[in-house]
Amino acid sequence: MTSSHSSTCDGYPEWIYDGSDIPDPFGYGERAVKFLRALRHPKSRLPGGAFDLKPWQERIVRRIYGPCDQDGRRIVRNVAMLLPRGNRKTSLGAALGLLHTIGPERVHGGEAIFAASDRKQARIAYDEAIGIVRAIPTAESKLKLTDSKNRLTAPKTGAFLEAISADAGTQHGRTPLFALVDELHAWKKRELWDVVRTGLVKVPGSLLMVISTAGRGQENVAYDFFDYARKVARGEIDDPATLPILFETPRDADWLDEELWYRANPGLAEGFPDIEGLRQMAREAKERPGDREAFRQLHLNVWLDHSADPFVDMLVYDQGAFPVDIDEMEEYPCWLAVDLSSNNDLTAVVAAWEHGDGYIVHPWFFCPEDNLRGRAERDGVPYPEWAEQGYITPTPGNVVDYRIVEDQIRELCARFNVQEIAFDPHMARNMLNNLQEDGFPAVEMRQGWVTMAPAVKELERAILGRRLIHGGHPVLRWNFENIVVHVDAAGNTAFHKGKSKDRIDGAVACAMAVGRAAAGDTGRSIYDSDDFTEDMGWF
């Protein structure tokens, strides 16, 4: 094994290949395997079109259904499977859905669901299951297919299999015995996820199976779910009911190492996905950064940052997540920066203190209180949870109340040794004037190359040098994750949003605060300098 595998994910399922014993005291694992092998598949090349259950897939099935407690109850209730594209995860999921609908895991009136982000994606596993049913002689005639409802029903038992999607409105009242959640990383909203999870706990012996490729970013339901599975795999959490099956690739691994491809893709040794196809994609990806990121994410299961062109590697950024006790910073010189943004988006105030040859930073965020849930769905991040945890201050109404922001700044000035409060004057003229009239050291810091390029460079130096301590604040991290960098002909770097909905306000304010702390000015803006001309101040 090459050195590129030395830092593989802790959840890599070695048990799939080591031939170790999988307990099956009641024979439920063997029963499930026999059922799957008795199925037919329209694309199978085996004699009679038999369902092609590969050895590694069989081990997974036995590991899910075999282990039981002394009363015969299945131990595994949650399966977290990260599997790259092309490894036939849909076929396996569809077959298991049938196991709970027409197979030995069925119960009278039992509900099995295939859940996905949209109708088209939800139909993929459903159509696969229908194809399997139609490949079995006489099976279709014994079942009822309601295509308009994406539902397959077994009339004798009342058990049914149905495809549902997150964009199909409310699904409350569900009580599934089996739920296959497909490509969770693509779910923009969590409402259906919550419905599925809460419905599963209503039924004894239910099973949740999440099969997905890797995603992007950390502030989403998929990252939370699979990160929990990683902790189970590492032994940090004792949860026998969760089975992690994580075919992941370390972010620092050599993505061109074909041995790594085989490790991340268990089907590759069996001929799927096609090795020559992967090689062609890799050749093209060497020349196109966007394709390279897609190759790493979708074919090697590398969980990426949100931005395809990040400001810094977020693994490096995360090394500054040491706890920050700002009570200990009250006597030290402090620089504040404020990005008021627009009224209905995030507003950020960031404090920076010099710390050796680096910096300690701490943010305060504000957002409108109205419709926090809707904003969470729009931006794909947990605003309500952040508000409950104190990471964001919601202000009354549907726009940010700048009076509350100004009061916070005044409190910070009373608490800390504030040398300067830097504002982007575009949105802050009234607040800037109010503070200046009351004697606070408020100054302008426009967002042009002349001021922001040195600030961004100093911030980058601190992060790459592991000299920025930020306490792991989740909202600030999300803002950094959203940054797309633009570089001018002179090599100056500026921050931009990756997409129109992305928020980078905290990162901008952080750069401003660090930049002013590095300059060490105490109340004198560069715009008061004789070196400043109007054409320098804007992009």
Automatic annotation (TrEMBL):
<dbReference type="Pfam" id="PF03354">
    <property type="entry name" value="TerL_ATPase"/>
</dbReference>
<dbReference type="Pfam" id="PF20441">
    <property type="entry name" value="TerL_nuclease"/>
</dbReference>
<dbReference type="InterPro" id="IPR046461">
    <property type="entry name" value="TerL_ATPase"/>
</dbReference>
<dbReference type="GO" id="GO:0004519">
    <property type="term" value="F:endonuclease activity"/>
</dbReference>
<dbReference type="InterPro" id="IPR046462">
    <property type="entry name" value="TerL_nuclease"/>
</dbReference>
<dbReference type="InterPro" id="IPR027417">
    <property type="entry name" value="P-loop_NTPase"/>
</dbReference>
<dbReference type="InterPro" id="IPR005021">
    <property type="entry name" value="Terminase_largesu-like"/>
</dbReference>
<feature type="domain" description="Terminase large subunit-like ATPase">
    <location>
        <begin position="55"/>
        <end position="230"/>
    </location>
</feature>
<feature type="domain" description="Terminase large subunit-like endonuclease">
    <location>
        <begin position="245"/>
        <end position="520"/>
    </location>
</feature>
<protein>
    <submittedName>
        <fullName>Phage terminase-like protein, large subunit</fullName>
    </submittedName>
</protein>
